[in-house]
């Protein structure tokens, strides 16, 4: 019989502990050996879904010091949502049973910077980059309405809005959070020192700040 998934709060604590190890250069590289790889062949049981920005500096298993089978990772530039993203997250929670969803943004985000520039200057990037900017723009406008115009201020607003949007658009996720079986947490990653900071959450997790 497979072990039951951890509680949302316990899963969140596991991520935070891994990030602390990463920050303090005390990594354990768990679940990366050949035996564990073989044990996962019949199926997976990740303890968290991580929906993050595609930025190359946000490699999830590295910054949270985890290994194979631990995280179900979904990434897009600027962590923008769409049907494919929502379906992937619902698969991680509804089918694989993950009790935690992380929305991971970071400071100096290029997608947020581009959207801010578009709003301020009225210019837009070409091709499908425009679609990314258009999906981040509501966060830029919401931040500006609240008197926040700096990139990192907008990043926090975008993370919070994305966290809220997941529950607004996914009935499955909203029901799991309401039942206490899952939590959705927004985190902001700091590029210079590798720490994560909680921006907001829905569901049963203790409030945490930093590493």
TrEMBL record:
Organism field: Saccharopolyspora hordei
Residues reported to bind Zn(2+): 53, 55, 106, 109
Presence of the UniProt keyword Zinc in the record: yes
GO molecular function: carbonate dehydratase activity; zinc ion binding
InterPro entries the record matches: Carbonic_anhydrase (IPR001765), Carbonic_anhydrase_CS (IPR015892), Carbonic_anhydrase_sf (IPR036874)
GO terms under biological process: carbon utilization
Needed co-factor(s): Zn(2+)
Protein name: carbonic anhydrase
Family that this chain belongs to: Belongs to the beta-class carbonic anhydrase family.
Catalytic activities: hydrogencarbonate + H(+) = CO2 + H2O
Keywords assigned by UniProt, alphabetized: Lyase, Metal-binding, Zinc
The EC number(s) this enzyme carries: 4.2.1.1
Domain of life: Bacteria
Record text on cofactor binding: Binds 1 zinc ion per subunit.
Protein task: Catalyzes the reversible hydration of carbon dioxide to form bicarbonate.
